[in-house]
Every structure is written in structure tokens, then in C-alpha cells.
Amino acid sequence: MRRTILASIFWLALTVTGCTGIPKGLAPVKDFEPDRYLGKWYEIARLDHSFERHLSNVSATYTRGDNGDIRVINRGFNAQTGSWKKIEGHARFLEGETVGSLKVSFFGPFYGAYHIIALDRQNYSYAMVAGPNRSYLWILARSQTLDESIYAKLVSQADAWVFDTGQLIRVEHNLPEEKMALAENTMKTDAHGKVEMLTPCPSKPNCVSSIDGDRKNFIEPLHFTGSVEDAQNRLLEVLSSLKRTRVVTVEKNYIHVESVSAIFRFVDDLEFSFDDRQKVIQVKSASRVGYYDLGVNRRRVEKIRTLF
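Request: output the structure for the sequence above.
Response:
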């Protein structure tokens, strides 16, 4: 699962489109050693933002990619839905590998800022990360807890840097590692590790699905050529152009999006499952509440099809 611990994940998602600058008056750490920074980090505290809302047990894992980039995997647990969110992306250094300043992408060509502004130089056991402005701040540690004296020191430094530390959210880590691994392994996958096909619509006329046997709810899938990755990036660009639409989860063969209505703020769920063999994108768009949708879900999918 990838693109909302979700991050978005989400979660160090940093999806402020095109914003890679650093807040005025701050500087990334120098003499940075990227290989020591690789591995798993736990989110200890964060400022609130939509792509990590309601997430606990948030972690980020960094590894070297094949091309020298940093591969990023963010995970988090949403207790309200009882499900894990996972997002994958990649990061590139902005000023060379000895400066802790990167741009991170979870959405094709769109990058967000990831600036390491405080770091345990001796053990690389804790860090503080800023986004492109003072609305984004994370405190990270190598373990699920951080010594309170160290946490207080980091919060005091962030306060001196004019972050709104009174709004920091302490992230709960209430799932032991073995339970986290078990929970993540229960995510829907088939025998080949691919995301399963989408579920059919319920027996209500407020949903459309390309795998539905009921003609009233059926809608044609999207078709693509080339690789799944290219199709996914193209679809993500389309989704990013839609109003009141938020990408929640991106995985290798799957995208989950939330769309909010303009007046009553109703939430609809859109899911896309990529079938590389048949070169189709199975799609489902469903309202969470109500009975009739007045054709909203069908029109939305057809608009996406046209733009795609």
C-alpha cells in the first residue's frame, strides 16, 4: 500500500504540491550522513494535517533505491476505520547528500519539502523535520517512545523557531511490533501479492463499479497502455486536478480517493485497481451515506475517464 501512512499516508507524506523551500530563518542540518539515517523511524509528534488525520502507530522506513534515490514507505493505523494506510514514494537531495534537505514525491511529478532541522548527531536516534512552512513539523525517533527530556528539548527548540508547538499531536503507539506486522499482512492481497479486485456495489443506487454484475451499477473500466506506474502517475495527476478530492492510499496496483461534496460535505470513496495483464483500471465510486446519489458517482467516473 502506498501514496496516504497515509502517508498519504499522509504521515510524512509532505504532499504540498511543488513546495520544496524551507521556512524562513531555518536551515537543514549539515554534515548529514544519509546511510545512518536509513531504516525505520517512528512518529512521536506532529502538527495536524489532513493526510495524517486520525492516524496512530505511524512509522516511516527509508531505504536506498536502485537509482540512488531514497525510497520512502509510510504506514499508519486508522482506528476509526480499523485499517492500515500505507504510501510509498521516493526522495531526492536538494543540496547534495551531506545536507539534510530533500524533496519527496508520492504523487508522480509533485514534490514536497522534507528538511531535517534537528538531529541526534551521535546516534541518529531522534530527529525533527519541517515541511515548506511552519504548518508542517514532525518529531521522529528510532523507537516508539522518546525520552521526555529529549522531547521537551526538541519542543522548546521548535517553539523558539516559532512553530505552534501548542498544537503538536502526540502520536500513540499502542500496537506491539508483532501485532503491527500481523495487521499489515491481513491487508487484501491475492496469491501473487497484488491488491484484490474491488468489491461489488451494495444493493443501493449510490454506487458504480466496473466489476458489478448488476447493470444498474455497472460502469466500464478505464483502459491504459504502457506500464502500471505510468498509468498510475497519469491518473494521480487527473485526481489532483479535481476539487475537494484527496488521495488517501496509493499502492502498487491500487489507489483510494475521498471526494467531498460542496454543500453538505458528504464523503464518497473512489477506488482504482490496476490490472497490468488486461491493461485496465477497475473502478468503484460509492457514497458512504444515503440511498440515491442522483448520478453523482457515475458522472464523476466519466469525468475522470475523459481527463485520463
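Residues 34-181 form a domain with the Lipocalin fold (CATH 2.40.128.20).
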